[in-house]
Design a protein that fits this description.
about 425 residues; alpha/beta; Rossmann fold; 2 domains; 6-stranded parallel beta sheet; 14 strands; about 15% strand; globular
Length: about 425
């Protein structure tokens, strides 16, 4: 069966070239907040720009596919970081993305930076003209995963590595945005049938992927490579936060899977029967997502008039680090996770973590966190009040120190040793 191995034609210690798909990251041009998946794509871009292996970028645009060489990839990286502003939209961009001016400018710059462009049906021919056989294609963003892509890559003599971050849409469809489970199922099937290597962020995710892949008739070669965790240097606290008032942080998109409803239940009870030390605040840091109308309504009520809950979307990475560093604990009652970056970021900063008892969190955090059932709000209330009474400083003095967390060097050592 094609794809049974991952080193078919190349015997040297390094791949002849790498091709990174940045379709997802370019599609999010102009958005203030980066998701965990966005950060992974960016980490791959930075890593591949940092070494001498020939490097190219592929992006699916409204007008076909665009190929960038190393110089073009560096120009794209500068624009994605904000070091260089996006240029003006061209006519094609304005016509393709009338309601998304940032996307129009991004795709116009792609065309200006391009080494080559082609309609989608011409992808294999374009790749054969510019990349050596045996090069590796990397897709870490769940975008552009379709059978036609994999067929074109293999016709061009490339090998394919795909990162699957989780199988949540297959296991918990009711927690996902409308339409996303069906879309993910198609992408998942294309990936496990067409990939020469599937990269997973944890052993728990690898087991989930293997379980679903077996039902499709092919379990591809897989590797578990934990993602790097690199909290930003703390900046100033957001002005809404009073450092002398105990507070807890819930970090992540406000969507059903993150289980903010449990936290609001807890804080409503605490506010109705305040403890002797007063009501600690809950800081909800993240943008509003989907299927959460009741939670949004309750957030509006609890956040009104300097209430016990503060909602702070759009924070910078430095502000998030400052927020976590000063918190009594990160509260993370998620119902399902593929990796769980916020608890690891908190742990790296020495901030206690109260989290759902999920296998992937135990795998990454060990005995650092307090684990609770994500449906037992009274157990969460007891743990939160106990943590507020102790206080962050006292916990640190008692021995709660930053936990050693996975780094990107270890991740890439694993991945690049398998893609040669």
């Amino acid at each position: 069966m094609r794809g049974a191995g991952i080193g078919r034609a190349i015997t040297s210690a390094e791949a002849p070239a790498r091709l990174l798909d940045l379709t997802r990251l370019v599609s999010r041009a102009g958005r203030a907040e980066m998701t965990g998946v966005d950060r992974v794509e960016r980490a791959y871009l930075d890593r591949f720009l940092d070494d001498s292996t020939p490097f190219f970028v592929l992006v699916r645009s409204a007008l076909g596919v665009v190929l960038l060489d190393r110089a073009g990839a560096a120009g794209l990286a500068a624009r994605l970081s904000g070091a260089v502003p996006w240029g003006a939209a061209d006519l094609a961009g304005r016509l393709s993305w009338r309601s998304q001016p940032a996307r129009a400018r991004a795709e116009a710059d792609l065309r200006r930076l391009a080494l080559a462009r082609a309609p989608r049906r011409g992808l294999a021919r374009m790749l054969r003209a510019h990349l050596p056989r045996g090069a590796w294609y990397f897709n870490t963003g769940h975008s552009h995963l379709e059978p036609a892509l994999f067929a074109a890559l293999h016709r061009a003599g490339l090998r394919v590595a795909v990162m699957l971050h989780d199988t949540i849409p297959l296991d918990h469809a009711h927690l996902c945005a409308p339409g996303s489970p069906a879309r993910f199922a198609r992408k998942f099937a294309a990936a496990v049938r067409g990939a020469d290597l599937v990269i997973c962020n944890s052993e728990a995710t690898r087991a989930d992927v293997a379980r679903h892949a077996a039902r499709l008739g092919r379990v591809p070669p897989m590797a578990a490579a934990p993602l790097g965790v690199t909290p930003a240097p703390p900046a100033a606290l957001p002005p809404e936060i009073e450092p002398d008032t105990p507070y807890f942080v819930a970090l992540g998109t406000i969507e059903p899977r993150k289980n903010h409803a449990l936290l609001l239940d807890v804080w409503q009870r605490i506010a109705a029967d305040p403890p002797p030390g007063g009501v600690p605040r809950l800081v909800v840091a993240g943008r509003r997502g989907w299927r959460n109308t009741d939670v949004f309504r309750r957030l509006d009520a609890l956040a009104a008039s300097n209430g016990p809950v503060a909602e702070l979307p759009g924070l910078s990475d430095g502000a998030v680090s400052a927020l976590l560093r000063g918190a009594c604990a990160l509260v993370f009652p998620s119902l399902a996770e593929g990796y769980g970056l916020p608890p690891l970021e908190a742990a790296a900063l020495g901030t206690p973590v109260i989290a759902s008892d999920l296998p992937v969190l135990r795998e990454q955090l060990g005995d650092f966190a307090v684990y609770l059932p994500p449906t037992d709000s009274y157990a969460w209330q007891e743990a939160i009040l106990r943590s507020a009474e102790i206080g962050k400083n006292a916990q640190t003095e008692a021995g709660v120190q930053g936990r050693s967390v996975p780094g990107w060097a270890g991740h890439f050592n694993t991945v690049l040793s398998l893609t040669v």
